[in-house]
Design brief:
The structure holds 2 protein chains of 2 kinds.
Chain A: H1 2-6, H2 11-53
Chain B: H1 2-8, H2 11-43, H3 57-84, H4 87-119, H5 128-149, H6 153-167, H7 170-180, H8 200-232, H9 237-250
Helix pairs in contact in B: 2-8, 3-4, 3-6, 3-8, 4-5, 4-8, 5-6, 5-7
Classes of the chains: A mainly alpha, B mainly alpha.
Chain lengths: 54, 251
């Protein structure tokens, strides 16, 4: 089993590549969701402000 | 066809349709990536020269291909936006840039991680493939910085579109760099005369990874275009109604 993960002594390189890829994908997802939520929040704030003005 | 495209380009319709498409892209892409990762890491035979280090291509190749694909999408959408003044296409261009930058970073980083054991160096200044890919990263940064510096969205769209289109010159340079110049980087394994130079057990996981990453990229891009559309249409009636309807549901 450990041989399977050792990747013929290239384990560090192989696993760090795959790990980094996973991290970048997760960051892309999180960044997108965060940005979307921020835009929605701004719009809501503006609408509330407009309603108070009335 | 034109009617369909016209409807697609209408922001509220796009906003609805894309929300329905994203989960499908993500799920199907995820399945292909799962298969590709497991088959690529554990079932593909080690390379006769590179041993198990070759498995890095299963993430490096999709990242590198999408880093260029994102640039093409950005430049072509920006061009369409400039010529036909379609608002949605400027939104697509703006949304593609940060994703392209992330995938370029990933392609460079996984390439360096592979280069260390295989070439004995993390980085080779003066290598055409590496330098042109690095230049693309700076093109993405420049594009995003330019957009961020201009408050007026219409002006930002136009100025950044010009930058994106001019920078597209770099794309064929990246692609052909391994043929035109002496590069440390190996030649193309898939797109070569005589078909892919790989046995099926190596090739299928790679194709699955490329396809899966493309779908995930599509889902990420659609998500970001939705955000762009929402921001650009923030003063419109449909966004107001949408947000108010959401508020009603939450409270």
């Amino acid at each position: 089993m450990s041989e399977l993960f050792a990747m013929g002594n290239y384990g560090v390189f192989v696993w760090s590549s795959f790990g980094l890829t996973l991290i970048v994908l997760l960051v892309c997802i999180a960044q997108g969701n965060w940005h979307h939520a921020a835009v929605l929040r701004d719009i809501k704030t503006r609408i509330r402000a407009m309603e108070l003005d009335k | 066809m034109w009617k369909f495209l016209h409807k697609l380009a209408s922001p509220p319709h796009f906003y609805d349709l894309s929300a329905k498409m994203i989960p499908w892209f993500a799920i199907i892409g995820g399945i292909f990536i799962m298969y590709g990762t497991i088959a690529g890491l554990f079932f593909a035979p080690p390379d006769y020269q590179q041993g198990d280090a070759f498995r890095i291509i299963y993430v490096h190749v999709p990242a590198a291909y999408l880093s260029m694909m994102a640039y093409m999408i950005m430049a072509i959408s920006a061009g369409i936006g400039l010529i036909w003044r379609i608002k949605l296409s400027h939104a697509v261009a703006a949304a593609a840039a940060p994703l392209g930058a992330w995938f370029t970073f990933l392609a460079l980083a996984t390439g360096m991680i592979w280069g260390r054991p295989m070439w004995g160096t993390w980085w080779e200044w003066g290598d055409p493939r590496m330098m042109s890919e690095l230049i693309m990263l700076f093109l993405y940064f420049g594009y995003m910085a330019l957009r961020a510096a201009i408050d007026d969205t219409v002006k930002a769209d136009k100025a950044s579109a010009v930058l994106a289109i001019v920078g597209a010159v770099n794309i064929p340079i990246i692609h052909f760099s391994v043929e035109w110049w002496n590069s440390l980087h190996q030649g193309s394994t898939l797109l070569r005369d005589g078909g892919p130079a790989m046995p099926a057990e190596m090739l299928y996981p790679l194709l699955a990874m490329i396809f899966g990453f493309t779908l995930i990229f599509g889902a990420l891009l659609l998500g970001r275009v939705r955000t762009e559309v929402l921001f650009r249409e923030r003063r419109s009636r449909w966004v107001r109604n949408l947000v108010c309807a959401q508020e009603g549901r939450n409270e």
